[in-house]
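This entry is passed on directly below:
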Amino acid sequence: MLRLLTTRRAAVAGVLGMALLGAACSSNDAGTAGSQTPAAPATTAASMTASAPFGAACSAVPASGAGSLEALAQDPVATAASNTPELSTLVTAVKKADLVDTLNSAQGITVFAPTDDAFAALPKPTLDKALADPKGLLTTVLTYHVVQGQLTPDQLAGSHKTLQGSTLQVSGSGQDFTVNDDSSVVCGNIKTANATVYLIDQVLLPKS
């Protein structure tokens, strides 16, 4: 009889010990969980979209290689443009005006970059006249496409002073913008190492 009581007491003690141990573990787990730093909120789809390039012409940007978005972001703007097939005429003009180093060394600029189709739409006498005067007319036209500061899409609308000295006017919102009322942004918000680039479908000509 005594042996039976002793056995029962040992069993009860064992159950109580296990219960207390379980409670202690639960308390420790709760304390650990409570002391953890809350995880940083995940990047939202809206914020990713806001920082991404936009426009129909962006579909021509290669997914990888020298002209990809990742590669363009590593190069200064004139170098990046030379790796963008749609900007070959602009690159030729920039080299002819001796503006490569000027653009590559500039800090924090926005470039409205006319595509090859934009240059093709210019009357040939106008383009020939500009190319024949690289230090004068050509430099004036090219620097009119450059604005100080890296403009995000939500900063784009408004009047902006250019490196040429006069201003240009951007209208629109979201992913639909026009420059000086006659040139549309066809691929915008492209990042390079020192600039934000907006590809446009017409060459901008400053008012004389």
In short: DSSP finds ten helices and seven strands in the chain.
